[in-house]
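Late entry, written up from scratch paper. The run itself happened at the end of the previous shift, but nothing got recorded in the book at the time, so transcribing now.
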Amino acid sequence: MNICYIATDVVVPHFRGASTHTREVATHLVKLGHQVDLLCREGSGQAQTEILDGVRIHRIKDGIVMSNPYSSYQAGEDGVSKSRVLRRVLKSLYGVYFTSIYPIYAATKAIKVVQSTDSDIILERETSFGAGAITSYLTGRTLIVEIIGPRFNTLSVRRASKILYYNPSMIGGLIDSHKLSKVSAAANTTLFRYNPQARKEKRDLLNLDGKTVIGYLGTFAEWQGLTDIIDAAKELTKRYPQVHFLMIGPYYQDARETVVQLGLLDRFTFLGQVPYEEVPEYLSATDILLAPYNLGPSPLRRQVGIGSSLKICEYMACGRPVIASSLYPISSEFQDGKDLLLIRPGDVKDLVNSIEKLMLNPDEMKRLALAGRDVVEKKYSWEIFTRSLEKMMFQAIHSS
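Output as recorded:
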């Protein structure tokens, strides 16, 4: 098949989970023998066209003639300095633009890609806000839509032959059930695996020898449980002098400032952004990995939940025991006590107790680490995901 993958709100490559998902899906479809042309957002310093891991990438600016400095990518990376009120107004205006004018512009670019490559099918990520649907209508190509988050375009829903979703709370009752197909997140099990040599090298580099290292990977959004991790650290560092927290990811400044104010900076290491290919090396350096999602601080997340368990899959693929909040889809895909430990969201005492349980029982840590790796290899690899997607694509084309 010739596939046009439209993900106009995603920079590829990038450290965000959206980029990881898009890149891995495209790459693994290529590995299955398909031609994939990916239409995505142009990041700072990136070429407009490129071949990456066999994927032909076509990048477009989110500001049409220039990158918009108030998009979430540019504002986060360039440190745009404006008043809070002005930022809120500009963000609101940008949101209107991105869901109205920009999809039409993106569709004009996508149509050229579809026609020049003779694409058989279009795969649209929901944050392209209808660019895929417009392209499908005007070229007559079959459309499949991925809904990973709650902001999707009704035009795409109506046009799609098949809709992939991760969490039913994202879709509500707006979609015909016969179009829906439940899917799960995945991990690159070749890249993400336990690496004992890298573990030693990174622990030596970061002066972690002899310490029990508790890790977190993410963008430090408050709903990812950062306050709960820091509160747990206050308790654990009083009792265990060997405990150390390794925090991986961008936008960590607020969390670090809180840690400084508490006098705990010597018990934390903030790495900042790490290249995707190096993430497994740092995860291997940890002893326990955390994903204590707490949706309380985010009204949107309280309403729709989390999109996928991508981070959990990558944690487990690295052969580290995992503690995560008991939230859908995590609780539906993994078994508490067998694959990982689940805690009550926002319950710091439960988090502390679960960390202690593992720290004091090395055999249980090892068992969970092996079990987690095993379940991801058997059920949640990108190879498995894309083989299933390939089957759905063929069915959609033949039924159109």
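The domain at 2-186+381-399 is CATH 3.40.50.2000 (Rossmann fold).
(Scratch paper discarded after transcription.)
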